[in-house]
Here is the input.
Amino acid sequence: MKESVFVSLLLLLVASVSVHAADSISTTGRISLRGTGHIDHEGANEDPDLTARLEIDARKTLWRLHAFIEGGWDGTVRDQPRDTSLLKDLTHVYQDNSPFAEFKELYLERGIGNMEWRIGIQRFSWGRLDEYPANDLLNPWDYNRFLIKSTEDRKIGVPSVSVNVNTKDWTCQLVWEPWFVPYRLPDPGARWSVVPAGSALTGNQEAQITAQEPDLPARTIANGSLGLRVQHPGMIDWAFTLFHGYDPRPVFKTTTLTISQSGEKLRIGPGFEPSFHKITTLGADGATVIGDWSLRAEAAYTFARTFNVRQELWGYPQVLEPGVYSLNPVEVERSSLDYGIGADYRLMEDWLLTLQAQQTEIFDRPASLYEKERETLLWANLKVSWLNQKVETSLNVAYNPEHGASMVRPGIVYILSDQWKVSINGLLLDGPPQSIFGRYAHNDQVEMTVTFSW
Here is the structure.
């Protein structure tokens, strides 16, 4: 209901701005056709998908309307979808829309002196690190095709009001999200399921698992989120951030495992659902250039972040038989510190090497957690352009030493013209079932994408 009111108000504002013809309108877009070949045939199947994007900017004196719309057919939706609507909404964790459409961004902007106001559906980029920026907490993520999408593509736009204040020496951004928007997850047993316990249940090929949609926090102002970022440019571009709101990282609570027989299949209610918790995070980040090196660093301290205990402690029965089973509590609250450093170095004109190391420290860690007291992620990416930048190759590798989990992601892009390009990307994953990469170990694949842009 509140979202309908918000959209109505937004459309009224758009109409008031659009009474007269805009001074300028610009559009950009792209259409991509993607197909996937599976290396590991134990993983869930995936059909080809077709995705279109359109960005529109309309300006009228001091006003700007920005819209970013994405839609198409999602190849990861294989079974009968639970959603018959075309438009992805902001109130459900599990969404199986295909075809689908989504407003990634839709906002009005106006500049007044040294202030810039925005109202609408927005995405934000805070922090400096790639893949897992510790201070980038304002937008929840869509975890479908996780590790394949870029960080920006994972972000879900949130209804929000933001104001930027710019002076000669510093900038300040204040963001208010009046109500909660959840992250999106694939169904348990789907190709990109993030739930280790859900993956374990799918060992029975005759089982049909039905995810339970969680109850969201009440849509009240008290359950909104607030973010503040103060940034100072210079030889060292530094910033301080404050975030108070719901943790956008997935965590689960147990309910009741239910198993029933339906013909030759077992129907399973997996006994867990997403759980949402408020956090307060204080962060800082900075970037500078020293000679041929571009350096960046980031750190964030989070009070009372929720973690899940190890999968074997959830209380699942060894043998899946019809019945109702109580499961153990699986949530633990601990404060944590995330920090990391990254560097870009141009080895030669068309060779760019990116290195990054980041860690998470969990204070007063209980022995029941799968995560170690200190978790480490090491990243390296090498990009090389060939044939006068007509061909670009890349090799992205990552390693989690605490669990021996790894990822290798090679890729090649061939630019046919200003509008057309073809890319081929591989993905190889390894590690224990509950590790960051091992939980997707059956998702080894090669994918090919043809893209037309304008």
Notes: Residues 143 and 219 are 23 Å apart (CA to CA). The longest strand covers residues 331-348.
